[in-house]
Amino acid sequence: MKNPALSQPPTQTQFLSVQDVATLVAKAGTATTLRRLADYIAIDYRRWQDFDKCARVASHSTDGVIELMPISDATTYAFKYVNGHPKNTRLGLPTVMAFGVLADVATGIPLLLSELTLSTALRTAAMSAVAARALARPNSKSMALIGNGAQAEFQALAFQHLLGIEEIRLFDTDALATAKLMRNLQGTGLRLIVCNSIAQVVRGADIVTTVTADKTNATILTPELIEPGMHINGVGGDCPGKTELHPDVLRAASVFVQYEPQTRIEGDLQQLPPDFAVTELWQVLRGEAPGRTSEAQITLFDSVGFALEDYSVLRYLRDVAAQAGLGQKLSLLPELADPKDLFSLIRPAATSTSAAKPSNPRTHDLAQAALALAA
C-alpha cells in the first residue's frame, strides 16, 4: 500500500482577487480588519530574528518605480510586486498597484496568490498604528493628515480605531482629493477639519501623518512647524529621491525605522549621514529599546514599507479566506505523473503500433517522395 506520507503534495494555488479581499473586509468590518492586521504585524515584528531579510529590489524610471519585496522564515516565503507611479492617476490608474505570493519553503509551492493593492493600503495603515501605539503620546486625540489621496482614509481609520483619534485635520494641494476623503469618512464619527495650509493643519496636532505621492525631494514639514510632544508618521518618502521632511525635522526627533538598511536608501533618512542614530521598531516592540520617554519628546516613524508587513497581511488573508471559504484554485504548476517528465505536457500523441514498427525501405522512400510533392 502506498505510504500517505510520500504522496504528492497539492500543486494548486489559492487565488484571492480584489473582490475577494473587499468581501473579507466587509464581512469583518474595517475596524476589525485593521485591528487583526495590526496584531499579525506586531506578532511578526516581535520575532524579527526568525526572518531572512533584505532591502527590496527596485527598478526606477523617470515616472516611477517597480519593486520586488521578498522575505522568509524557516517555513514560509513571501514576496510582493508593487509599483509607484504618481502620474498614473492622469491615466485613470492607481498610483500603487500590487500582488503577492505566500509559498512553502520546504517545497517551493506557491500556496497563495493575492491582490495586494487594497491590502497594501490596509497593512500600511495598520503598520502606522502599531508604530504610533509605541511612540505617540497615549492621550493623543488629533491628527494632521497631509496628502488626502488613495491611502488617506485607511490611515485616518487606523488611528481612530487603534489609537482613539477623534479629530482629523486635512490638507492637500488637490481640493478634490480632500472632498473625496470627506465623503468617504462621513458617518465614521471622526471630526474632520479642512485646512488651507500646512502650517494650519499641523498647528496643535498630536500626530502628523504625511502621505504624499510625488516622486520628488519635497520639504512638506519644516522645523518651525514641529511642536514638543508631536509624533510624526512619515509615510510618503519611500524611494531614493522622494522625501517629505526637512532634514532638521529628523535631527530634532527620535527616529524609528522598520529595517535600517532599506530606510537609509529610501526614507527621509536618505538625507542624513550614515552615522545618524535610529532605532528599528522591532526593538521597541520587544522591549529591547525605549520608544517615547517623555511628554515633550518628538518621535518620528520614517515609514517606507517593509516586506515583513506583506508577509503578515498575506498570512492574515490566507487564514481569514480559509475560514470564509473565499477564493479559487489556480493551476499555476504542472501536475505530472512523473515529476522528471515535464516534456510530457507537450509531447505529441503516441503514434499507432504499426507506425512504430520498422518500415519497409521502399515504402519509406515513397512516403518521403509524397511529402516532398505535397510541400
Can you put this structure into words, describing what you see?
The N and C termini lie far apart (54 Å). Strand 14, helix 8 (260-266) and strand 15 form a beta-alpha-beta unit. The model is unreliable at 1-6, 352-357 and 369-375 (pLDDT under 50). This protein has an 8-stranded parallel beta sheet. Helix 2 packs across helix 4 and helix 3 (117-135) packs across helix 10 (307-324). It has 375 residues and is α/β, with parallel strands linked by helices. It has 12 helices and 17 strands. The protein is globular.
List the SSEs and their pairings:
Elements: E1 13-16, H1 18-28, H2 30-46, E2 57-60, E3 65-72, E4 76-84, E5 98-104, E6 110-115, H3 117-135, E7 142-146, H4 152-163, E8 167-171, H5 175-184, E9 191-194, H6 198-202, E10 207-210, E11 217-221, E12 231-234, E13 243-245, H7 247-251, E14 254-257, H8 260-266, E15 279-280, H9 281-285, E16 299-302, H10 307-324, E17 328-330, H11 353-356, H12 361-374
Parallel strand pairs: 1-6, 7-8, 7-10, 8-9, 10-12, 11-13, 12-16, 14-15, 14-16
Antiparallel strand pairs: 1-17, 2-3, 3-4, 4-5, 5-6
Helix pairs in contact: 2-3, 2-4, 2-10, 3-4, 3-10
Summary tags:
globular, eight-stranded parallel β-sheet, 375 residues, disordered N terminus, disordered C terminus, alpha/beta
Please outline what is shown here:
With 375 residues, this protein is α/β, with parallel strands linked by helices. Helices cover 34% and strands 22% of the residues.
